[in-house]
Amino acid sequence: MIRAHLATFPERQDLLLDAVKSIAPQVDRVFVCLNEFTAPPPGLDEVPNLEYMIPDEDLKDAGKFAFSADADDIIFTIDDDIIYADDYVERTLAFTDQLDLETNTIGYQAHAFVFKKQEDRLGWRNFAFGKKCPQIFKVDLLGTGTACFLGKNCPTLAEIQPCAGFVDLRFSRLQTKACVTMWVLPRDEGYLTNNLPDALWETSLFNTVNLKRPENLKREVRQLLQERTPHSGLKLDKVLKERSAQ
User: Fold this and answer.
1) Three-state secondary structure call for residue 74
2) I need a labelling partner for 67 at 20 to 30 A (CA). Which of 114, 115, 214, 241 fits?
3) To 10 degrees, what angle do helices 167-177 and 215-227 make?
4) Which pLDDT value is given to residue 138?
5) Is residue 58 scored above 90 in pLDDT?
6) Which DSSP state fits 233?
């Protein structure tokens, strides 16, 4: 089964349907976690392959991982403020010829911790999903708004929930722990569209959680940097060349 997993909250209900309708025709099932809702918002019943849950507590972005999947399912975790291209699933899965999902997780929003020559220091190289990316690069941190992976490599809610609000960090650490390599995929500028209006920017988890820099977030970052594997920021062909030389 090809699945899409999404978590949302009431302030985003006007965006939700746009995101869902862009991905639903491309997958077998869409699973939506409706944090803080008391009833499903209008329009969801128009999507025949959609299932939803209303959790007893606010799971935030951890709600993407509140659904059980079989080991051989292909999971796309998505966000409520992104419009996914009509060929998103097909195009993404085409890269699995090179990057078998048994041992690789792929996506479009990512970060690699690299040495920056111009600044003479280590720092993050960022791959924003709406920006052009010319090649496949190995990364240390993959965003769960644009990630694709096998059910066997999907963390459980219990593993993810302690990092609700910044699940990308825990998700990426767990991929590395499972010996799964993360990659950012090539695309043209604007292939994926940010659908978040300025008026809702303050509701983003970046503003409500990340900018506050809670201690557990800082701890996750430190641990991710300690646990990351070699070849951060290198193109796929260079990584394969270096691996074969070892």
Assistant:
1) strand
2) 214
3) 30
4) 97
5) yes
6) T
